[in-house]
Amino acid sequence: MTKAETLLGGYEAGAIAAGLAFHCARCGKQLTDPASIQHGWGPECRHLANEVLAKTIPANTVRALEELSASVLAGSEGVVAEILEALRVEILEGAGAGRADWRGVVHCLVRLITITPEYWKATLCNIIAALGYEILAHVARGSASPSPAELVVENGRLVLKSKRNKPALAKLRVIQGRQFHGISKTWSFPVASLREVVAVVETYWPTSKLDVMSLLKTCAAVKIAGPPSFLVVTTEVEGKLELATPYNAAFVADLKAALPWNKRGWDPVKKVWWVDLSEQLVAKDIVAKHFSVPSKAVAA
After folding, report:
1. Mind listing the pLDDT tens digit for each residue in 96-155?
2. Phi first, then psi: what are they for 121, rounded to 5°?
3. Residue 14, by phi and psi: left (phi above 0), alpha (psi -120 to 50) or beta?
4. Radius of gyration of the chain, Cα coordinates, nearest whole angstrom
5. Does pTM top 0.90 for this prediction?
6. Phi/psi at 155 (nearest 5 deg)?
7. Helices (H), ranges, the chain
8. If you ran DSSP here, which 8-state letter would residue 155 be given?
9. At what angle do helices 194-204 and 212-225 cross, to 10 degrees?
10. What angle do the packed helices 43-52 and 134-141 form, to 10 degrees?
11. CB neighbours (10 Å) of residue 236?
């Protein structure tokens, strides 16, 4: 047992004897049974933490020490200060010895979250992430969902089926070509963004059981076959060409880049794009690029 673990065990024993409350490192609910207090998680959150404990990346001990020294040590006192100093020494010595497994230190950090002020939580989670346990840090922050997500390929696109996760949405929204489907409450993405989507799923829905190799093969087949076929309707109305297409962010971006603002526009009532007839050849080329089907002309 390390010095930090010994000090922490004594501190916890004294806190329990004094009747002080412990709170789950993830959800903040009060911990009452000894096993939960010892681990720093309630039963459900502990199951989630155990799922991701083996998912690590190389540690950045320099960053971990910077976070520990600058933000936490400066504001600590008493036994907690001794525990943090012991952890600092352990990380420093371990880094010099080429240590790769930091689970003991991370376990202490999680337990510290349960007994230290709430404003320390973000920094302690940052240290956990710096030691390579990035997904576990998301669990402690409360941003990792305990429920799994499903990622499949449907109609030539990646489709994500999951429970809402607000931190994950910020990551999904920056993926080019993403689309939210209000009726089914799902997100879809171009198959080319598979690695980006998988990274978000594994971080924010860590209990998901993704068959990445199968998804890679399916996405490769979609790329070979080309974009999915959709019916694209073009209609000539009063000197304009109206384009009724499924939503495609890349198509919209190309249309805006290729045509000046006064030669194209969006009709929110009809929900179509209009293009000046003088630019119809350019518009039809962009349609063909993104939807891989000839446009169906309809008389006005």
Report:
1. 999 989 999 999 999 999 988 888 899 999 999 999 999 999 999 999 998 999 999 987
2. -55, -45
3. alpha
4. 27
5. no
6. 55, 40
7. 3-17, 34-39, 43-52, 61-67, 78-96, 103-115, 121-130, 134-141, 166-172, 194-204, 212-225, 249-258, 280-291
8. T
9. 150
10. 160
11. 14
